[in-house]
Fold each of these.
Amino acid sequence: MATNAYIKLVPSSVKMDITLDEVKELLLYYQNITSKTGEQLDWQYEDAAFPYEIKENEEGKGKWFYLYSNHDRYHTIIFGVDKETIVNSDGTKMEQTYIQITLPESSTFGDKGKANEFCKFIAKKLQGELHLFNGRIMYYYPRK
């Protein structure tokens, strides 16, 4: 059965709305900084830190994309962006954007570890609320 993690963009986040292309840019940024770390260490760290290719098919165009790997420890992670309506404590309704990270049945334990890394990285960059695969919540935004 597929498992999901969510990064919710709350009012205290850096931005309230995000596109799929911006999520791709964050992953490419992650890939870039890990390759620079590898250069400093004189080691092919980029291959170990980001062993995926970003792919998008016609059916998911604009709604989701996936990371695919042909390494033996990794397989697939799916990223999507959507909105939900939430009710505030004062009863007003508000639209909230979230990033959904899905591990399909074909995913490995390596995928889960990498997905957790990517979730934490993106949530920290956006100062969002991260709902992990195990149901726990991590708050990366300034709380009052």
Amino acid sequence: MSDRWRTLALVLLALVSTAGLLAPAVPGAHAREGARVVDERRTGDRTVDLTVRSSALGRDARIRLLTPDGWERRGRHDRWPVLYLFVGGDGDHETWTREYEVHRKAELRDTLVVMPEMPLYGFYSDWWNHGDGGPPAVESFHLREVLPLLERDYGAGTRRAAAGESQGGFGALSYAARHPGLFRAVAGYSGFVHPLQHPHAVRAGMTYLGLDWLSLWGDPVAQRAIWRAHDPYYLAERLRGTRVHLAGGDGRAGALDPPGTEPDPHIPGLEDPDDPFPDDVISPTEALMEQESRALATRLERAGVQVSTHFYTGTHSPPYWWRELDRTLPMLLRALGS
């Protein structure tokens, strides 16, 4: 076989492998066996917490709902537009009400807001687990268990948008790209939206937390097709028709950082020795996230995707994500027709 045909064969093999790794369309999917509500309790005037027994995660997991006006009196066929809010790597389902007080936003009174938990550093993916699969299957939990469950029993409609902070920004963009048409609009705030640009950062973060980083998507060279199949940068064309917003800071102390803000905790291996961070960067993670968001924004523009951006001086911290949510909420709600 000539070098030319050998190269062509390898390219075709990579494309076929990547296509096989892309998840099938989710709308209309049935909830997996075992995905059922085992506890439901009101935790505020409009907040309801569900505990779901998940076969995808292999354990019980929680979802916080911010309910719209009239939700308690809903009939069998009542449906509301849905805003999914995805949390960062800690996976805490209370983050969006505790840190960003979304329950106080009057503009959300006609929208069902869904805030599901995620395993620690779960990366919004069904883990490869060295080829064995199995829990944690985070994408399956969110899209094949939670989504159809809420649409069947809790008034969730099919007009959907999503936003996420930090690793949740990756979740919003990756889910939208892997399932075209799932969301009308998505926003990523300081999102890990191009992980193959900085695979060493995935390794460093997971190793720092005591997790096996190769269990997620495998090795970025040997299992590159798996990485590409989850990376929004390589799925840009699949976001045509979805409104996208990307935001991120440069890692330097900014307007929302109090005087004397300390640098982020040191994570060994996060810095690339061949591309060190500038001396005044106190939030290396945020600097990487901005680089990834800028790269993705350029790729989306070239692919004909409607994308807007906001890049600024600032760190990887909640005050900036609160501001970005306020900036982008009108866009997300317009996409929902709210």
Amino acid sequence: MSKTNPVLDAIYERRSIRKFTDDPVSRKDLTAILEAGRWTPSGLNNQPYRFLVIHDHDARVEPLAECTKYGHIVKAAKLLICVFLDKQAMYSEMKDHQGAGACTQNMMLAAHSLGLGTVWLGQIINDQAAVLEVLGLSTEKYELQAVIALGHPDQKGSSKRNELSEYMLEDF
């Protein structure tokens, strides 16, 4: 792996973190993470991404945890960043969904670069209507894409990847 390129290092070293310390995440770090999401490319520069930050002391944490089998992670995080698409700003469903994934990844890489841990909670979108109700948002206007659980890591992440050749459809 690289060790000389900070972007590649962040990609190769970032791992999903599901346990967090009680240390707060600074507003400066949170803003930097949200800015990384804001700078995600989008088709026609439509910028359909919308964010909602929920702090660990927010009354919505408990009911939000009920919307996923990973509720224990929702409760453990110092912050949750909910990533939405604004349906009125979308122009291509597939492209905007892909962009939301890139947006989520941008924020997770930014968090990693700041020494913070994240995990992408995707299963929670299976109960999207309940999540939007808990958050007081309209299903007509917003589509939940992901929830990022965020905090100072209280564990080491681990992961394995297949060999590159297993992904290739042809030799390059």
Amino acid sequence: MECIKRTGKVTAIEVKNAFQGIATAQKTLLVLFGEMMEDFKGRIGIARAQSTHKQYEVLYKQLKQFLLEEYHVGDIPLAEFDLPFIEALNFFFRIKRKMKPRTVKARIVLLNKVIR
């Protein structure tokens, strides 16, 4: 199933939808993030700064690492992006990555911009 390749797991809803023939082509967090970064890259020097793009690249790599280490998946559907996910990410940044609160806040704000 495509979902196993994409996220490494299958939910009961996805099994039900597959059984009923309902398509569940969801966007995933890292796919959306990558698309946003490509759009951002095209506007560097016009309406965006190179330094801000670098911050997004760093956050993208950190998110990939977080998903692999904590969730053991390569990406997650946006439907699973919820408060417990953000709390786990916050814990990962503060405890495992030893980031300062100000840096963690800046990362979460950037992530919020991606999702919006």
